[in-house]
Every structure is written in structure tokens, then in C-alpha cells.
Amino acid sequence: MLLEKNISLQCKNMMKKGSSSFYQAFKWLPRKEREAVYVIYSFCRMIDDSVDEPENSPYTLDELEYHLNKLEEADGHFIWSALRWVFDEFSLKKEPYHIQISGQRLDFVQKSYPSMTELEDYCYRVAGSVGEMLIPILHPNPNQSLIDAGISLGKGMQIVNIIRDIGADQRLGRRYVPLELMKQYGYSEADWHDQVVNQALKEVISALTDQADQWFFEGLRYIDEYPNKSAFAMKLAAGYYREIIAVVKENDYQVFTERAVVTSQRKSHLLLQLTK
């Protein structure tokens, strides 16, 4: 059974508006799987917006969790019937969604990260959990190795998000770049406050990029075990995210005042490379 057409369109529009890279990568999936990704992305977007843009969110984080717990009777928004559909069609579990919510809840109480260990936990909660949600959509019978790889891919993407959004997060009073990493390369908290772009910051970002690349490698390790269209979508999504780092470098690591954006032309070039 396919998702109701008008609900599918609303979820699709949420994804196109929220992440053109994700939309462009996953639109190649078969219809049922594509619509499931739209739904999952839309719900995750609502979770994120409830924290970062509460004035524009129809629900608080607690309300989203409450309705998720009572999903069978939840109403008042198209997302609930959409979630019921995707949970039923793909026999999904709620645990990754609760993990996602727990990660977003951290943003209320933790504004900076002392260590890579703590940052990895955050990346797992807010993005690795998304990989955990999507793998049962992208693979008909995933084992634990595939799920773990999906978690790694999500964590890698979150590191890229953190690098890209350094300036925006700083304006919100947040610093996800671990203090231990800053100290390791001689980049001080005063430098951070003053938005200094120097060799030390470049080394910090390079270290974060190396970690992201490791997680991308782990995330795509079993890519040949996926259906062709799923494998293509995952490789394209990873390629789009990795291209963000290329733009950061082209901007000479000015991450405080410039947001690295991958143009449509660059995305088209990546698409052509993968289809050769």
C-alpha cells in the first residue's frame, strides 16, 4: 500500500524545503521507499524545528514525544497518519526516534562539548539515529552490521553539519567543536569568541573532517549489499555532504560568516560522476 497522495506531497515538500541535498539524493528510490524517506525526514525536521525554531513549530519536543508514544491515536497533523503508514509498511521500531528526541533535548541543556567522546554520543543521537531509521527502508532485510554502518554514515554527516554551521551555532550560543580538539591544535576559546580564522582552526576542521571521512568509509563499507537504487542514493548523499567540506576549503575555512553551500551545478556534476 502506498501513502495517501496529499500526505506524500506534504512530506515531500518538507524535505525539499529542509534539505535539497537529501531530497536530490533519495528521489531516485522506488516510490514506496522514497515516500517512506519523505515521512521520516519530515518527522525528524519537526523534532529539530521544535528546538531550533519553536516559534514556527506546531509542537514542542515533549508533545512530539507524547504523540509518538501514542501513535495509534495521534491526530491533528498529517505526520501522524504518515508515521503510522511507514511503521506498518516497514515494521519499524520506535527506539531510534526516541534516541533522536533525546539528542535534540541535549540542545536545551548542553551548549558546548569538552571531548570527542561526548560529541560522538551527540552525533549518534541526532544523526546516527536517522541512519538507524533509514536502513530498514533502504534494505529489505538489514543485519546489525548494516544498521551499524548506517549509524556511522549519519554520524559522518552530522560532523559535516557541525563544520558548515559553526557560525550559525555560535550565534545561538552553541559550540559543538570539542574543547579538547581546540586545545590540541592551539585554538583558544578567545579565538573562537573573536571568530579568528587561522592555521589552528584549519587544523581543527581538518581533524573533524578526518573523523567524518572515517565514518563515511564505515557507512559505505557494505554498500554492495544494498539494492542498486538504495546504494546509489546513499553514495550520492555522502558525496553531497563531502562536497560541503570542499566548499569550506574553497572559502578558506571562513566558517563564521560564510555558510558553505553546494550549488546545483556541483550537485549535477556529482550525479553525472556516479552515473558513469
From TrEMBL:
Pathway: Carotenoid biosynthesis. GO terms for molecular function: geranylgeranyl diphosphate synthase activity; squalene synthase [NAD(P)H] activity. GO terms for biological process: carotenoid biosynthetic process. CDD domains: Trans_IPPS_HH (cd00683). Keywords: Carotenoid biosynthesis, Transferase. Signal peptide: none annotated. Pfam families: SQS_PSY. It comes from the Bacteria. SUPFAM superfamilies: Terpenoid synthases. Gene3D superfamilies: Farnesyl Diphosphate Synthase. This is Phytoene/squalene synthase family protein. It comes from Natronobacillus azotifigens.
